[in-house]
Design a protein that fits this description.
The complex is a heterodimer. Chain A is built from no helices and eleven strands. Chain A is an all-beta fold. Chain B is globular, with a radius of gyration of 13 Å. Classes of the chains: A mainly beta, B mainly beta.
C-alpha cells in the first residue's frame, strides 16, 4: 500500500487552463503539505494543513487553492496556469512534527 | 525566521571516499532534524532523523549524522560512498513554533566509479 499517493504523476497542459492534483495519505497523519520543487531542485513549502485546517500559506499566488475535505486528503487546484508554474509538486504528510513522508510527485509542464 | 543552510551545492567523490555534507539551521528553540535523499527522478526518502537523546544518529544505507547544538549543525556522514549514493541530499528542520518542515537547498552528490 502506498503511504502517500498523488495523482496524476505527469500533467501537461496549456497556459490559461485550470488543473487539479490530488493527494491522499493512509498513515493516519494529522498534517499534510504541498511543496513545489523547481528546476534547481529547491523545495519550497506552499501550504500546510493540520487536521483539515490551513496553518501555513506561504507567498503563493491566489491562483493556487488547496482543499482538504478530510484529514487524509489534500488537493491542489491551480487556475489560469502560467509557464512559471512548471515544476514538480510534492504532497507530504507528517504526525506532530515527526518525519514527513512524501508522495511520488506530480511533474507539471505548462506549454 | 526558521532557515536551513547547506553549504555544499555539488560534491563529486570517487567510490570508497568518505562523505561529509554540512547542514546548519537557524532556529534557536527545539527542533527536529532530518536528512532526506532524492534519487534521480524519484521522490524524497528519509535517511535519518533526530528528535532528542544521543546526538549521533544512524540511518539507512550506512549514513549517520551528528547533532551539535552549540554549532546549530547536523552534518551527514558516510565512511565509504558507493556509486549508488549518487543523488540529491536535503537537510530539513521542523520547529513547533513555525509548524512546518523547512528544507535546505540541497546538495547534489555525484559518485564516480
Amino acid at each position: 500500500d502506498t503511504a502517500v499517493s498523488q495523482t496524476p504523476k505527469y500533467l501537461v497542459t496549456q497556459m490559461g487552463n485550470d488543473k487539479s492534483i490530488k493527494c491522499e495519505q493512509n498513515l493516519g497523519h494529522d498534517t499534510m503539505y504541498w511543496y513545489k520543487q523547481d528546476s534547481k531542485k529547491f523545495l519550497k513549502i506552499m501550504f500546510s494543513y493540520n487536521n483539515k485546517e490551513l496553518i501555513i500559506n506561504e507567498t503563493v499566488p491566489n491562483r493556487f487553492s488547496p482543499k482538504s475535505p478530510d484529514k487524509a486528503h489534500l488537493n491542489l487546484h491551480i487556475n489560469s496556469l502560467e509557464l512559471g508554474d512548471s515544476a514538480v509538486y510534492f504532497c507530504a504528510s507528517s504526525y506532530q512534527g515527526r518525519e514527513a513522508f512524501f508522495g511520488q510527485g506530480t511533474r507539471l509542464t505548462v506549454v | 525566521a526558521q532557515s536551513v543552510s547547506q553549504h555544499n551545492h555539488h560534491v563529486i567523490l570517487s567510490e570508497a571516499a568518505s562523505l561529509e555534507l554540512g547542514c546548519n539551521y537557524s532556529y534557536g528553540g527545539t527542533v527536529n532534524l532530518f536528512w532526506y535523499v532524492q534519487y534521480p527522478g524519484q521522490h524524497l526518502q528519509l535517511l535519518l532523523k533526530y528528535f532528542s537523546g544521543d546526538p549521533l544518529v544512524k540511518g539507512i544505507k550506512g549514513f549517520e549524522a551528528e547533532f551539535i547544538k552549540s554549532k546549530f549543525s547536523f552534518n551527514l556522514r558516510k565512511p565509504s560512498v558507493q556509486w549508488s549514493d549518487t543523488a540529491e541530499y536535503f537537510c530539513a528542520a521542523f520547529s513547533g513554533g513555525y509548524q512546518k518542515v523547512t528544507f535546505g537547498t540541497g546538495t547534489k552528490l555525484q559518485v564516480i566509479p
